[in-house]
Structure formats: structure tokens, C-alpha cells
Amino acid sequence: MQEFCPFCYTPGVALDYFDLQEMRRNHPAWRLMYADNGPLITSFLDRAFRTENERALSESELSLRLEDFLFSLREIEGDDAYPRAARSYLDEWAHVEKGWLRKFYPPGSDEAHYDLTPATETTLRWLDGLFERRFVGTESRLNTAVQLLREIAGGVEENRELRLAELTRRQAEIAEEINRISEGETEWQLDERGLRERFFEFSRTARELLSDFRAVENNFRELDRSVREQIATWSGEKSEMLERIFGEHDAITESEQGQSFRAFWDFLMNPASQDELSDLLDRVFRISSISREKEETRLRRIHFDWMSAGEQTQRTVARLSQQLRSYLDDRAYYENRRITEILSHIEKDAIAVRHAPPDDLEMEISDVRPDITLPMARPLFSPPLPSDLTSEPVTEETITIDSEALFDRIVVDRRRLLQNIHDTLATRSQAKLNMILELHPLQEGLAELVDYFAIAAGSTHAIIDGEATATITWRDRSGIHRKATVPEIVFVAGERT
């Protein structure tokens, strides 16, 4: 019998032996799996972050929860179990050698906060799969797979007739279903098994989507760290460094991951999409077979958790860009100061040798001939234009001044604009600037539009999306139709803006 060779065997998924050995030593997810306190760590982190869909917890809050969790375990396993303090465990889990928690200080806060790392999320998802499922939903997953294949095939189809034939077939299926429902048939309704199967598939996808945000944030932080390392070790021209940095930033923004996240964010920030998601979730959780599930409290408002996680990712990207700009400004300041010091040393040395120049002083001249400018290459003389002057004095009787022009000023009442925003948000969770202007048109034209941007820039409940644009139209005082293309603003309901 031929002996099994671990170096030669190639499974369906290419897992290299040496890569796995290196991953076993260094990957945080693998280290968590064989850690001595692995059950303690995974069960507590799952309860603290994933059960309530928490994005980040302060050190005091997380320490208090861990102390309660350890106390309950000591009552069962004895007082000697887990003897260390909660903060000691948290510091160990957030250490760079472990990498199971991310410890950071949010802007404007002097207290440390903790969040799960993507490696920990991967471990928790894998552990979810170890527990026996109530049943395996093959039908819903097959429908999802077939639907994805249809979208892929239809998305690249170049033959117009084939595409029209496919759309016609789907139209005929829909028309046939409408006729059956009109005749009183109810075969289109899902039974309890089908409902629960599709709900479990939605639950798994919704939870995985939340964990994906942590991976996206981590990718942006890795990009920021890589850029800072390039700046610190760069020895070439500064213009080349800036061109390389901004080129990488544009490459990330326009990458498949960046475009996918922007498309997801645009869909989620659309008020129509939010209303549709809220209506669908309310209708689903009114079904008795689904309302009994434990996931109800986590999933009933899952789209708001998606919005919160997406907003945090957007703010992380904006904060990293601001920090990078400050870092570049600091480097420019130190470079300018160094240049000033060098010039000062040169001046001191020049003054020291002014009256006693050295005998061996030599100077190089770039050229031995002066530059010659041909006479015909000079521009021709252009005489100034004559101006007609009058010496007659202007008297009060010969001129009429309209004094109304002194009082015809544009005044924008910001309180009225704030009230417009508040009234629009009274019946919805958020609103775009276009929606507000449809209900409350511009009265003072461009000046009032600029004031809306000033309100959004100074508010914590507004987002200015530089990637998306909106077209604003109005009529000025003279009746002329005006139009402006501006970045899109989204106002979110909260405290009074």
C-alpha cells in the first residue's frame, strides 16, 4: 500500500501544509481555538458583543460584564476557577500576541473601548456551525444559488433576443401566478417548514453581514498603517510619495470591495429601502411560527444595526483620512523647520569667513555665457486705451438714487431651516436634503442652500456624502430658473439639530 504523503496530497480546496503550520502559530483565530481558556473567551465575547449586536463597549462596561460572568462560573466550578481580575483578562485578550479584542480610544473620550477583531468573528461563526442544526434548509439555499446563477448569466448576456426571451418567460410565469391567485388558489403560500427554513437562512446572512463590517474597518486600518509605514521610510521626492499614497487610496475606493460597500450604503440610506425593510420585518415577525424564535429581539431591528455599523465604518474612513492629512502636515512642518536651520547655519558660516575667506575657496559657475534675448522676440508695444474724463460736478438735481437698494438684502433665518428639518424628520428616521426642499422650497436661493450645508457640517446627526450628488432647482427673485449640483446630505432623526 502506498504511504500517504502530506506534502503531495491536494484536496479539493488547496490548503498548503506549510501555510497551515505558519497559520497555526500566528493566526489569532487558530490560537483562540486551542487556548486554555477558549470556552470562557468565546462564550463571553459572543454574549457581550454578538447577542446584543454591540459594536464597541467601554472598558468599565465590559469589565463589569466580565466580572459578573466570572462570578457565575466560580459558583459552579469553585472559587479557584479563573482567579484573575476582569481587566487583566481583557488586557491579555487585546494584546498584540493574542489579537482577540481591539483596544482603542474613540475621539473625544479618554476611556479605552473594546471591539471584536475579524479573527474572533471568524472563530465564533465557525463555532456556530459545530452545533447541530434543527434541520438543514436545502431548498432555500438551492433557490438562492439558482437565483444568483440567473443574475450572473443575465448580467453578461450580450444577445438581445435571448435576454428578451428570458424576460418574456418570467413575465409569463408571473401572469400565470396572478391568474391562479385570482381564481382562488393558495398553493403559492409557504408552509411552516418553508417559512422557518427561509427565516434561518435570513438570520444567518444578517448576522454574517454585521460581522463583515468589522472586516471592512480592519482592511481600511491596515491600509492606513501601510501608508504610514511608506511615509516613515520614504526617501524620494515628496511629490512622488503623495502621488503613490493618493493612488492607493483611489484604488481602494474604486476596488470591488469599495464599490460593493458604497452600493450597499446607498441602498441602505435610501428612505424607500428603509421603509420597505421595516415593513417586511414587521410582516415577517407577525407570523406565529417565526415570532417564537429567540432571534426575534436581535433581528427585528437588524436594518438599524446595519445602518449603525455602516455609519461607524464611514466615520472610521473619514477619521483615518483626517489623521493621514495631519500626519503629512506635521512632516511638512518639520521639513520646513529643518530647511530653516540649515539656512541659518549657512548664514553663520558665511559671516564667520566674510573678512577672512579661505585661500582654497572655489566656486563653480553653471554657464560662462549670458542668456541672449533677440530683439524681435520681445513683445510689441501696446498703447493704453484712451479714457474720456469729464470735469463737470455731479449735483443732487442731476442724479437719482434708489434708496430701496440699501435695504434689499438677503437674510436667511436659520431657525426656520432647523424647523424645516425637524418637521420633516417628525414622521421618518432620516431624510435627504432633496426631500426637505420638496416640502419646504428654497426662499432665498443659493444663500439658503449654503446655510443647509453649514447646518449639516456642524451637526452630529447629519452626513455629507461626497461620493453621491443631488441636483437642486429653484427660481430666484427675478423669476430665472436656477440649478445646482451639490453633494448629497442625509439628516438623521435624533436630538434637535
Helix and strand layout, with pairings?
Elements: H1 17-26, H2 28-33, H3 38-50, E1 57-58, H4 59-77, H5 86-93, E2 101-104, E3 113-116, H6 118-130, H7 138-156, H8 160-182, H9 192-233, H10 238-253, H11 256-269, H12 271-285, H13 288-291, H14 296-299, H15 302-352, H16 414-424, E4 430-432, H17 433-439, H18 446-457, E5 462-475, E6 481-492
Antiparallel strand pairs: 1-3, 2-3, 4-6, 5-6
Helix pairs in contact: 6-9, 7-9, 9-15
Describe this structure in words.
By secondary structure, this protein is mainly alpha-helical. Among the domains are: 17-130, Arc Repressor Mutant, subunit A (Orthogonal Bundle), CATH 1.10.10; 195-348; 414-492, no CATH class. The chain is built from 18 helices and 6 strands. The protein has helices spanning 17-26, 28-33, 38-50, 59-77, 86-93, 118-130, 138-156, 160-182, 192-233, 238-253, 256-269, 271-285, 288-291, 296-299, 302-352, 414-424, 433-439, 446-457, and strands spanning 57-58, 101-104, 113-116, 430-432, 462-475, 481-492. Strands 1-3-2 form a 3-stranded antiparallel sheet. 11% of the residues are buried. Residues 1-13 have low confidence and may be disordered.
